[in-house]
């Protein structure tokens, strides 16, 4: 009964209801957009936005109740939102995102596991780096791109568009590049930079090294294995060319 | 397929599609299913064209509903297989149908009268 009183008390405030409604609406909009054909970076931003917007009303409720119970005196909605609920939401969203976002891709119907010679190639080089072999997946998308997650279940994703236009050596160069990111536990993946700055995990992953240094290191690894920079350079050129032609 | 622009100085599908798009479609009508690389290899014999250009063109044709695309696992991994959504004749018939409908929609009775007179002379 006390719980119902707490909920009723929370919902009695129009400001709480307004904030919660806006947040849940934003969660719904982000989720709807997530299901459309948007670029990978946008998809990630939407995934995190969705998770954060879902968590926010509950974080606000929990913190309001904690405030009332423990007598912190944080009756002001501004204090509750900006000092407690928002930071708590960001932390929780980052944690959930860290665990759940990769599953979005590995469990998605638009991705499928890659086996065969390319996976064997990845396995061989993962062993040389003393790293558990990450999952290797293709994503049903005609634009050429690749990304990786160095999270609970490290995975590398290559779009079918990339597999179509790159040569075998160029694909291997990209795979080596992504493997390096995973082995070095670099940034979660190539996230939008504002999410990187907000996430507390930016201090854990790739501690002390900037994103451009991570990229140089990954490029260097691919070049050292293949004995040349030309395959990775050629792959990047084709990806850029596609992007310019597609507009 | 939507018809928004026809180049009257060109004939056949070239009046509707860019030269590269037209060549890609001709290849797909000839060989029912093809990968990006196969189409590129055929086109390369007659003109200088980048693989990325062919990939972009195929994606555009897919967006316009002219070709369909399936992902297939095969030797060398997963690739898209493209095929034309209609035969050449079917495509041309559809273009004519859409064009006539647009003309009638734009010019109304004038267009209808013209077609009546034109076909009654035959």
Question: Can you describe what's shown?
Answer:
The complex is a heterodimer of chains A (247) and B (122). By secondary structure, chain A is α+β, with helices and mostly antiparallel strands. Chain A has ten helices and four strands. A four-stranded mixed β-sheet of chain A has the order 1-2-4-3, sandwiched between helices. In chain A, strand 3 and strand 4 form a beta hairpin. Chain A starts with a helix and ends with a helix. Mean pLDDT of chain A is 80; it is low at 189-194 and 204-208. Chain B has 122 residues and is an alpha+beta fold. In chain B, 55% of the residues lie in helices and 13% in strands. Chain B contains five helices and two strands; from the N terminus they run αααββαα. Classes of the chains: A alpha+beta (247), B alpha+beta (122). Chain A binds chain B through residues 112, 114, 116, 118, 138, 140, 142-144, 160-161, 163-165, 168, 171, 238, 241-242, 245-246, and chain B through 35-37, 50-53, 55-56, 58-59, 62, 69, 71, 73, 76-80.
Which structural traits does this protein have?
heterodimer; A: 247 residues; 4 strands; B: 122 residues; alpha+beta; 5 helices
Structure summarized in a few sentences:
The complex is a heterodimer of chains A (247) and B (122). Chain A is α+β, with helices and mostly antiparallel strands.
- The helix content of chain B is 40-55%
Globally, the shape of chain B reads elongated
Largest sheet data of chain A: 4 strands, mixed
Shape of chain A: elongated
> Tally of extended strands of chain B?
2
What is Rg of chain B?
A: 18 Å
Question: Topology, please?
Answer:
The complex is a heterodimer of chains A (247) and B (122).
Chain A: H1 2-12, H2 14-34, H3 40-70, H4 77-106, E1 111-113, H5 117-128, E2 135-139, E3 146-149, E4 155-159, H6 160-165, H7 168-183, H8 193-198, H9 211-226, H10 230-246
Parallel strand pairs in A: 2-4
Antiparallel strand pairs in A: 1-2, 3-4
Helix pairs in contact in A: 2-3, 3-4, 5-7, 7-9, 7-10
Chain B: H1 19-30, H2 36-44, H3 51-63, E1 67-74, E2 77-84, H4 88-107, H5 109-121
Antiparallel strand pairs in B: 1-2
């Amino acid at each position: 009964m006390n719980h119902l009183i707490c909920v009723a008390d929370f919902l009695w405030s129009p400001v709480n209801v307004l904030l919660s409604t806006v947040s849940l609406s934003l969660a719904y909009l982000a989720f709807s957009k997530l299901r459309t054909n948007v670029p990978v970076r946008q998809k990630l931003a939407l995934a995190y936005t969705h998770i954060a917007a879902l968590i926010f009303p509950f974080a606000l409720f929990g913190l309001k109740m904690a405030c009332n119970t423990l007598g912190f005196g944080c009756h002001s909605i501004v204090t509750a939102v900006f000092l407690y609920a928002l930071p708590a939401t960001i932390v929780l969203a980052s944690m959930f995102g860290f665990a759940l976002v990769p599953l979005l891709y590995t469990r998605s119907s638009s991705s499928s596991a890659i086996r065969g010679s390319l996976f064997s190639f990845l396995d061989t080089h993962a062993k040389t780096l003393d790293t558990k072999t990450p999952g290797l997946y293709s994503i049903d998308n005609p634009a050429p791109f690749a990304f990786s997650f160095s999270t609970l279940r490290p995975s590398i994703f290559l779009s079918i568009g990339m597999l179509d236009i790159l040569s075998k050596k160029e694909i291997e160069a990209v795979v080596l590049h992504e493997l390096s990111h995973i082995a070095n536990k670099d940034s979660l993946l190539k996230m939008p930079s504002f999410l990187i700055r907000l996430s507390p995990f930016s201090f854990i992953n790739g501690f002390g090294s900037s994103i451009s240094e991570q990229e140089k290191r990954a490029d260097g690894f691919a070049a050292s294995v293949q004995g040349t920079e030309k395959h990775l350079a050629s792959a990047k050129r084709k990806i850029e060319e596609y992007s310019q032609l597609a507009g | 397929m939507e018809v928004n622009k026809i180049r009257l100085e060109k004939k056949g599908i070239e009046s509707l599609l860019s030269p590269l798009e037209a060549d890609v479609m001709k290849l797909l009508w000839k060989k029912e299913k093809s990968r990006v690389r196969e189409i590129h290899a055929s086109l390369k014999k007659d003109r200088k064209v980048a693989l990325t250009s062919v990939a972009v063109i195929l994606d555009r044709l897919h967006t316009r509903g002219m070709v369909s695309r399936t992902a297939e696992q095969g030797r060398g991994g997963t690739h898209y297989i493209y095929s034309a959504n209609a035969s050449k004749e079917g495509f041309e018939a559809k273009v004519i149908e859409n064009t006539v409908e647009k003309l009638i929609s734009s010019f109304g009775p004038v267009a209808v009268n013209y077609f009546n007179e034109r076909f009654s002379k035959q």
